[in-house]
Amino acid sequence: MGISSYYRPVVPKQSKTANYSNAAISASTFYTVLSATSGRGILSRVALVGYGTAFTNSNLQIRITIDGVANTITGGSGLYARGLVHNAAYTDNSGIAGNCFDYFCNTTFTTSLQVEVMYNTTPVVALYAVVDYQIE
Length: 136
Prior knowledge:
mainly beta; elongated
């Protein structure tokens, strides 16, 4: 019995973090946090924080495109095929509502990775995002 194809596991050599910060976004527009168009690696975590009046976590979205296949995740706690989502609501010292949305995963990519974030309704809010990943 032979092996018909060879799988080479992803062995990351360098950890990286991509950051996104925008205090005045447009609603229902995806903003790119990371675009790695070549190479192999592992996506570890995506964290998204939003601030604004009448803010709800269900309006936060993360779109992750791995090797050309996109998946959109909407805010809220739950299990997903590739990870675990945690969210929390809070108010900062000035009384502005905020929510965070953490997506923990351990997903490999072999050719490309793109991570985008969005708040999908008005009022416009501020968005801050972090993507942790490793590359070969």
